[in-house]
Design brief:
The protein is α/β, with parallel strands linked by helices. It has a single domain, classed as putative 2-phosphosulfolactate phosphatase (Alpha-Beta Complex). The protein is 38% helix and 19% strand. The strands form four sheets. Strands 1-7-2-6 form a four-stranded parallel sheet, with helices on both faces. A hairpin with a 5-residue loop joins strand 8 and strand 9. The two termini are 21 Å apart. The relative contact order is 0.22.
């Protein structure tokens, strides 16, 4: 299955969900987890993210171009083993926390094969959830980069595909010979390049360069213990919910069946 945004993620029942936000949340998660760090996704903005970081003993990522870490994957390459990082994101983080599936992975081009392999061990119903971007009015903007990221993961899966999943795979397979150039030319890639983050686009396009699978786990801390927020970004109650973070799934669990 392949769906877009938080609404699509909640529409489908799945055994495992794979969050895809190629430029740049899930690529950031992949880079950080490769380094042995943990990523705490957060969707309420940088102000409240600092409260979460203080509560879990983490570093809070800043806006691009500010601080040690941000949604620039190149900054996460500086992470050290055991480090905790809160990563605010209006798309990938929100989508991560909106998932209803019992198992959630962060997938992108650089870990597509490894994540697909791990997902098939979790059950037959696999949802590949593409984040997309936002128009100025808040509406969902379908992102080419997330379509091909979803397609790269789906291309590694066995079994029947929904029409949406099949279409994503076809787009990826037809794009692969020019993958780097297409990532640079798409709307999100052009935006990042204009801001001075061309290196991030190149990192995001490193297909299957990582064998590490980021899996979403829960911390002992609850959201309502550390901040006065009643619901998450998609309106789900936060009271009683444990804080979530991505770290590495054991490598032996990602070997082919």
């Amino acid at each position: 299955m392949c769906e877009w945004g938080a609404d699509g993620a909640q529409f489908r029942r799945a055994d495992v969900a794979i969050v895809v936000d190629v430029l740049s949340f899930s690529t950031c998660v992949s880079v950080a987890v490769d380094r042995g760090a943990c990523i705490y996704p957060f969707s309420h903005g940088h102000g409240r993210a600092r409260a979460l970081a203080d509560a879990v003993g983490a570093t809070c990522a800043m806006k691009r171009g500010e601080g040690r870490y941000s949604l620039s994957p190149a900054t996460l390459a500086k992470a050290v083993p055991g480090e905790r990082i809160v990563l605010p994101s209006p798309n990938g983080a929100m989508l991560s926390l909106a998932q209803q599936a019992p198992v959630v992975f962060a997938g992108c081009l650089r870990n597509a094969k490894a994540v697909a392999c791990a997902a098939q061990r979790c059950g037959p119903r696999i949802l590949v959830a593409a984040a997309g971007e936002r128009w100025p009015n808040g509406g969902l903007r379908v992102g080419f980069e997330d379509l091909i990221g979803a397609g790269a993961i789906i291309a590694e899966l066995n079994g029947e595909l929904t029409p949406e999943a099949h279409a994503a795979r076809v787009v990826y397979e037809s794009s692969r010979p020019r993958l780097a150039a297409l990532l640079q030319d798409c709307a999100s890639g052009q935006e990042l390049i204009a801001w001075g983050f061309a290196d991030d686009v190149a990192m995001a396009g490193a297909i299957n360069s990582s064998a590490t699978v980021p899996i979403l786990r829960t911390d002992a801390v609850r959201y309502d213990e550390i901040m006065a927020v009643e619901t998450d970004a998609v309106g789900a109650p936060l009271k009683g919910r444990q804080v979530a973070f991505y770290d590495a799934m054991a490598k032996e669990a990602t070997a082919p069946i």
